[in-house]
Amino acid sequence: MDKKKQATEIVKRLKKEYAGTPQTALTFSTPFQLLAATILSAQTTDIQVNKVTATLFKKYPEIEDFANTTPEKLAQDVASVNFYKNKAKNINNAAKMVLAQFNGEVPKSMEELVLLPGVARKTANIVLSSAFGINDGIAVDTHVKRLAYRLGLTKHEDPIKIENDLMLLAPRKEWGDLSHLLIFHGRAVCQARKPKHDGCVLFDICPSRTI
Asked: Could you tell me which of 23, 117, 28 has the C-alpha nearest to residue 67?
């Protein structure tokens, strides 16, 4: 099976396995809330981020609220996530920048999103896909990186190179779904230490089924 056919089959099987439209596990109501939650999620579980944002988004419901507080106050509100001081500073500055340079609207392009503090391609891809339905790339987190390698879809370790490989294999319309599906499967079955081969719907087409 060539890699493009394999990628198509992977998406088909995982969509069947994880029924429904794949969506980010982060809880949000507005594009800026998703941006903030995604910044917070770096090296922190989505479950922990959702616990934090349940209170955070009530205290700071609008982008102006995030801009008008101080990094120090915001840091206290997100202190249970890793690297909270730096993340609080980035969220505060991102809010100010969106208000000053983008008329209070989170930008809808990769080029503009990555100008915001704390936003690299992964975060931008998540915001574009989940907030705006725009597939401009594929968000590569630790799960996507691990599964893409195990499934033989890439030989690279660098997230940008992995993203480029996946973009060549999957149709653009599937880019957002592919990221979510690999994350779901990585959490539930293809875990880092011990993959659950017995419960894997990709077992017969996986080159790593003997690990």
From this structure: 117
CATH topology of domain 31-132: Endonuclease III; domain 1 (1.10.340)
Q: Does residue 16 have an active-site annotation?
A: no
Domains of the chain, by residue range, sit at 3-22+137-205, 31-132
**152-175 residue pLDDT tens:** 999 999 999 999 999 999 999 999
Confidence bin at 179 (pLDDT 50/70/90)? very high
What is the fold of 3-22+137-205? Endonuclease Iii, domain 2 (1.10.1670)
pLDDT of res. 21: 67
Question: Which of 87, 122, 136, 177 does the annotation list as catalytic?
Answer: 122
Q: What angle do the packed helices 159-169 and 175-188 form, to 10 degrees?
A: 120
pLDDT in tens, 24-34: 889 999 999 99
Q: CA 165, CA 209: separation in Å to the nearest integer?
A: 21
Is 122 catalytic? The answer is: yes
